[in-house]
Amino acid sequence: RASFLLVAGALALVPLPDTTRVPAEVISTNASMVTAPFSGIVLSVGVTDGDTVVVGQDELLRLDTDDILQDLASAQADYSRALLDRESARGARDAAALRNAELEAEGLRARIDLLENRRQRATVLAPVDGVVAGDNLQQLVGATLRQGDPSLTVLDPNTLALKLEVPDAVLTKIDDGEIGVFRPDFAPDQSFDGSVAWISAAQSARTDVTVFDGRANLDSDQGTLRPGLRGVFVFERSFRPLYRIVWDAARDWVLLRLWI
């Protein structure tokens, strides 16, 4: 028994790294939502999730323009007729008929300009440089969108941050401003410096586990990171004896349950 107590006491004094890991996801704090410019059917989608796009060059999606082209042909025919009526009224020196023909021609010209503008906007180009974000984008093909309906998002890769999912068991161990490193799942040997910006006092909307949403700023080179990548945000503190780690964990668990 004495030997057991001696060994247990020695193990309790073994120094271990006090490390806390929090699930994290790379996000962009600057996102541009792409919406339908007018109501119509999606004819094609030119990008997939994760594609890099250049503002004004890369085509994101295209709406069907068959109805627009039919209306445009009809308006152009009516406009040509209105011009002929205007010239006929001018030749007949009929002031009233001339005025009516001019008003009709002006209205039809405005309608033609509107339809031309809509035809051009049917091809939606990237509004900013960035990375496309959207699930199953090809499922949009054939769908009917109303004007203003969101279709996809373009994320600015130069404004990256981390969305933290802080478990309740470690909530009291993390403070605002605390420094840590992000280790992405695709390359756990890589690390990116960061610091905690804030942790919400309210529980996350998730129902499967009890977590609190948080945000961390990234300070180091972000060249290899992209929005949507997952990993862990690691807080590596000084070494502490095993008994202290176990005691603090049990104390925090009890206090957290009493507080909730």
Short descriptors:
260 residues; alpha+beta; 6-stranded antiparallel beta barrel; 4-stranded antiparallel beta sheet; 4 helices; 14 strands; 32% helix
Strand order of the largest sheet: 1-10-13-12-11-14
Number of helices: 4
Shape: rod-shaped
- The radius of gyration over CA amounts to 31 Å
| Total beta strands | 14
Summarize the structure.
With 260 residues, the chain is an alpha+beta fold. The protein has helices spanning 2-12, 66-91, 95-121, 242-259; strands at 15-28, 31-35, 40-45, 52-53, 59-63, 123-125, 130-133, 144-145, 150-155, 160-167, 179-184, 192-203, 211-218, 230-241.
Q: How would you portray this structure in words?
A:
This protein has 260 residues and is of the alpha+beta class. It has four helices and 14 strands. Strands 1-10-13-12-11-14 form a six-stranded antiparallel beta barrel. It has a four-stranded antiparallel sheet with strand order 2-9-7-4, with no helix packed on it. Strand 11 and strand 12 (192-203) form a beta hairpin. The longest helix is centred in the middle third of the chain and has 27 residues, at 95-121. It is rod-shaped, with a radius of gyration of 31 Å. 18% of the residues are buried.
Topology record:
Blueprint: H1 2-12, E1 15-28, E2 31-35, E3 40-45, E4 52-53, E5 59-63, H2 66-91, H3 95-121, E6 123-125, E7 130-133, E8 144-145, E9 150-155, E10 160-167, E11 179-184, E12 192-203, E13 211-218, E14 230-241, H4 242-259
Antiparallel strand pairs: 1-10, 1-14, 2-9, 3-5, 3-8, 4-7, 5-6, 7-9, 10-13, 11-12, 11-14, 12-13
Helix pairs in contact: 2-3
